[in-house]
Target: Transketolase
Amino acid sequence: MTVATRSQAELDLLCINTIRTLSMDAVQAANSGHPGTPVALAPVAYALWQGFLRFDPADPIWPNRDRFVLSAGHASMLLYSLLHLTGVRAVDPKYEILGEPSVPLESIKKFRQLASKCPGHPEYRWTSGVETTTGPLGQGVATSVGMAIAGKWMAEHFNRPEFPMFDFDVYAIAGDGCLMEGASYEAASLAGHLKLSNLCWIYDNNRITIEGSTDLAFSEDVATRFIAAGWNVTRVGDANDLEMLSRAFQTFKGEQHRPTLIIVDSHIGYGTAKQGSHTAHGEPLGEQVIAEFKERFGLSPEAFHVPGGVYDRFQEGIGRRGKSLRDAWYVKFDEYKARFPELAEQLELMQRRELPEGWDRDLPSFPADEKGLAGRAASSKVLNAVARNVPWFIGGSADLTPSTKTRIESPEAGDFQAGSYGGRNLHFGVRELGMGACLNGMALTKVRPYGSGFFIFSDFSRPAIRLAALMEIPVIYIFTHDSIGVGEDGPTHQPIEQLASLRAIPNMYTIRPGDANEIVEAWRFIMKLKHEPACLVLTRQNVPTLDRSRYAAASGLARGAYVLADPPSGAEPEVILLASGSEVPLCASAFERLIADGVAARVVSMPCWELFEHQDVSYREAVLPPHITARVSVEQAATFGWERYVGPKGHMIGMQTFGASAPLKELQKKFGFTVDNVVAKAKELVSGATAPA
Ligand SMILES: Cc1ncc(C[n+]2csc(CCOP(=O)(O)OP(=O)(O)O)c2C)c(N)n1
Ligand SMILES: [Mg+2]
Model:
């Protein structure tokens, strides 16, 4: 049949079958991957992309584009096929469009191979058009809620009468696995509460996961659960029914007050000999099954074949619609720029993750103070100074804002709720993982988000934190109650291994400042980050503010670790005390005692290991001269990792066990975080080091 004689319906089916065959062929060539779900969902994705998605393949970063999230990341070939067939262009890391295809056919042929633009699971910032990294089930849908939140916020902040600059929708495809994961539940509950009508999840109800039928472990009524959470729920009884799919998307578009869940009944591996079998899930279909499928549907037996008319069909659909919407938006934006230059400038800065000029002009500086203040209290002042000058800096906590002190106080900031989407204070509820994923979605949409909670519960956010680091997005986490210093709440609330575990995440900064002025410097550093998340780890309890006329300037934080104090005599140090956070002032006190006792001590404040590791070797060796082997580290956390700075001859004062419930002072004594103990350990090392071998 020639292109000219094909009916519209036949062309649609040809496009859908091309998505299918590209997916099967790629998985077959890689000899690994998940073919069955892309095959089954091809019509769903086609109906959405071709008929509804407001997305310009030639400009995949147009700010008001609809977002598409493939939460079932194992079905990555579905997305890669779409990115290829619609001709999405590549964008470089500077957000300048390059014009090459984002996913050339060559990359599909090299699915899952080194350097291919088609890795096993979709990766943001690696493949243009991938809106978020997915693969850990549940994370994608949860992230989509953050995108919808940011969409609502941006609409409220930027839109003006006659200027609807933001009205994009967010679509996400979820499988059974996504809906079993707690992350999706947390996020769905929040989305329902916030009435995010710009959010549409498509649930691939194929009743199959890896082990087999969902009867094994998943028998709840999903529709009822989502209705209970405040969602609009609709159903499509057959994933191949383009008409019904289209009607479901229309229903979503018409819904003004609730997020929408479209439950789509499908058969994994549709149309193949493995239809409905979980063997279609995670292994190649096999040459023979693929050949039979192609024959059955009258398709070329050739692998990776794209029939004539398919590229054009996509160009005439999503391509043309996307371009005209995108172009119209930029025409409007030019007018907007003339009428609202300040807002337009904000919008442009946000897109490039830049800060307004003078963003740091109100940052405080704290006078020396023996009594000092809590890290969370100092940070609150800094956060509010930042918030004054960076309007798109928004965030909240997992129900702990009064404790974490992360509220943007100015009355205009307000709360983000249904009906007040311009509010800058978010209430994520007691949902640390949902919060983490939402923060990712918000950062992907280019607002600058922060989230906060107790440090111990950073574990609950960890899967999302890890993805932020992997995606290279600048999410800010403010974790307070950072050590056994929380005291009476006891070991369930006392972080031990959290510092070590966060420090182990690549491409992230974990910063535990030593006093209020280091907190200022930490914020100064964090706000300038564009492609790394950061965890700011702060005390609940008061910490002295160091006298910076006596000790080195807090700006040393920018190098990760710095010499806070050296022997006043100018003598070479005999012993080095290393500490982070609340143990820095403790070491400063120990230092004073050692100096008085005639021991030449140095104190190194070490708020951020990762930053220190980025310094050149001469700086690192100036701070920690290799020949000075008498070193004592002091940190109210697991000692794990300090070996590298303390060396084989040093001593680590830290936690080897969980903490205990008791007043702080008693805990400090029990676990050795006292001036007496630090001094004693330092002296032991010095005398040991000077004793004849
Ligand atoms: C958090 C998480 N746990 C486990 C996996 C491994 N895994 C990949 S796909 C899958 C089953 C998914 O089933 P479903 O979502 O129904 O997708 P389908 O098999 O129907 O495509 C599992 C367990 C994962 N990717 N993420
Ligand atoms: Mg399934």
Residues 310-339 form the longest helix (30 residues). Residues 12 and 277 are 26 Å apart (CA to CA). The longest strand covers residues 631-638.
